[in-house]
Amino acid sequence: MDAVHQRAVKGGKDSSPKTKQTTSVAGDGQEPADKQPKVEVLRRKRTLLDDILTVIFLGLVVLVFYHVRHDTYWLGFLVGALASVSVVIFLSKKVWRVIGRFLSEKVLNSQWTLVTDRRPLRKKQSMKKFTDQAWQVSE
Known about the structure:
- It is a single chain.
- The protein is mostly helical.
- It has two domains: 1-45, no CATH class; 46-139, no CATH class.
- It contains four helices and two strands.
- It has helices at 3-10, 48-67, 72-107, 124-138, and strands at 20-24, 38-42.
- It has a two-stranded antiparallel ribbon with strand order 1-2.
- The longest helix is centred in the middle third of the chain and has 36 residues, at 72-107.
- The protein is flat and about 65 Å long.
């Protein structure tokens, strides 16, 4: 065991920050997994407000299902609406990913755009942010 784990076992305090975590970045496939560069990822700490809002939300979900449990029409309607909204969101993300890729590769990757600003959606995280915001705007 290393020194940090020994202190934790003995009841000592770990002085390392809890919000930082290192993960490997996928390379070009030629480097072994342990030789890949590490990237620092910041995680947001959970707060009491997050937990309270989660409990309130789950309570409301239980309350709605409790009130419609005997009425099969409305229970079916509720489950069908939830399923259909999930499908619409999934399809919307797929469509916006294609539109975003087109805009990034064809429209914004031209001689009129600065070299540093070309292909803004080439990174996976940028594309995810774009599709998440696009489906919320379009729905």
